[in-house]
Amino acid sequence: MAAFEAAYGAAGAWTHLFRQAAGFIEIKLLRCEDQTGRYLTIDRWTSAKAFEDFKRVFAADYKALDAQLEGLSWTEVRLGAFEEWPYPQ
Asked: What is the pTM of this model?
């Protein structure tokens, strides 16, 4: 669990990669209080377009990091894309 937290936390490898992209805000790593080893990661971007641009520009880096960190998680489920509401003006 320590390796997962280090990789996916605010100072981890994913944050380092995401920080290279315009529009990245932050990663939040939440640890479940009821189930050991269960986490929720929240990647925040200024817009859906910023995230899509990141995925296009950094596709190779993303794939390489994902392969490097393989085995740190058992399953990954995308919950969806959400926007802050009410949307900040």
From this structure: 0.83
Q: Is 38 part of any domain?
A: yes
d(C-alpha 78, C-alpha 22), whole Å: 22
HSE-CB for 7 with a 13 A CA cutoff:
14
Structurally, how many domains does the chain consist of?
A: 1
* Angle in degrees, 0-180, between the axes of helices 59-68 and 48-57, rounded to the nearest 10: 80
What's the number of CA atoms in the CB half-sphere (13 Å) around residue 48?
Answer: 5
21-63 per-position pLDDT tens digit: 999 999 999 999 999 989 999 999 999 999 999 999 999 999 9
